């Protein structure tokens, strides 16, 4: 019990430290080697977007702590103390349970993302993420508090069902956050490097397609970390129709600078666009 307590106490510091380091590296890389150079990715417009997106993640984090204080790692520790889950039932060694937990959680996040586009109610919440007209590092932080809470409930249910080791859940959470910042970052990777990396993980050029205003492209490349799921389930798009540098980002319904406003963004799930596109058939 004491070990579990120490693990729970150190978990926020580990996550915050990893977040800060990855954020700093990605921010510097965006300045040195940007993929796109547009008004929304520079100057005052960029500053407004960054303030809004960072404020959103702070609000979402606070909401999560208030509504679901255990979070994924705490849930794993609780389930372990109760002996819940498939892995303990099967008597799997800790290393195998950890590997399987990481892979299954990654698929669960991919599936959740897919459903968030197909189910109209969830799309209303998720579209705040897509309303950002300038995809960069901070877009990875731009998820509505409602979506963050619902996502954590989903992950917690998967963690309990598996009986996932707490260390594996912590590793997954750190990698997922880091991968999201990496593949949303406005950075330029050499094409040969991109081709090699995207065989295993989602790259910025691959995920940027998902933020296209073209619904055919938005409804593809759902992965946040491993790229295998989109290939397996035929939701993979290799290149944007307008090219990497001419791709139009955001939602066709909202193209103004209101998308960089905090209040407007938080209220978006409750707004109806003038020309609403149906996301689910």
UniProtKB/TrEMBL annotation:
Q: Name one Pfam family in it.
A: FA_hydroxylase
Membrane association type:
Multi-pass membrane protein
The biological process GO terms on file are: lipid biosynthetic process; membrane lipid metabolic process
Keyword annotations for this protein?
Lipid metabolism, Membrane, Oxidoreductase, Transmembrane, Transmembrane helix
- One of the record's GO cellular component terms: membrane
Gene Ontology terms for molecular function = glyceryl-ether monooxygenase activity; iron ion binding
TM helices/strands, residue ranges: 12-33, 54-79, 85-111, 152-176
Where is it localised?
Answer: Endomembrane system
Name of the protein described by the UniProt record:
Sterol desaturase family protein
What is the scientific name of the source organism?
Pseudohoeflea suaedae
For this protein's source organism, the top of the classification is: Bacteria, Pseudomonadati, Pseudomonadota, Alphaproteobacteria, Hyphomicrobiales
């Amino acid at each position: 019990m004491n070990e579990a307590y120490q693990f729970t106490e150190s978990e926020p510091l580990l996550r915050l430290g990893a977040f800060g380091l990855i954020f700093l590296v990605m921010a510097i890389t965006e300045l040195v080697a940007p993929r796109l150079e547009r008004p929304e990715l520079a100057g005052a417009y960029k500053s407004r977007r960054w303030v809004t997106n960072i404020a959103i993640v702070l609000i979402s984090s606070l909401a999560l702590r208030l509504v679901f204080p255990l979070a994924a790692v705490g849930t794993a520790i609780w389930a372990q103390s109760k002996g819940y889950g498939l892995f303990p039932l099967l008597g799997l060694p800790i290393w195998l349970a950890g590997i399987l937990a990481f892979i299954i959680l990654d698929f669960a996040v991919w599936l959740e993302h897919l459903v968030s586009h197909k189910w109209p109610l969830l799309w209303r919440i998720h579209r705040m993420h897509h309303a950002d007209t300038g995809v960069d590092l901070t877009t990875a932080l731009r998820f509505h508090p409602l979506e963050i809470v619902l996502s954590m409930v989903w992950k917690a249910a998967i963690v309990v069902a598996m009986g996932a080791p707490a260390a594996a859940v912590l590793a997954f959470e750190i990698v997922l956050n880091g991968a999201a910042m990496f593949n949303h970052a406005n950075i330029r990777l050499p094409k040969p490097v991109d081709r090699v990396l995207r065989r295993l993980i989602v790259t910025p050029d691959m995920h940027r397609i998902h933020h296209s205003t073209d619904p055919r492209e938005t409804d593809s490349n759902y992965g946040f970390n491993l790229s295998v799921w989109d290939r397996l389930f035929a939701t993979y798009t290799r290149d944007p129709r307008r090219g990497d540098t001419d791709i139009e980002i955001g939602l066709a319904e909202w193209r103004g600078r209101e998308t960089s406003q905090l209040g407007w963004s938080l209220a978006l799930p409750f707004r109806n666009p003038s020309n609403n596109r149906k996301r689910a058939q």
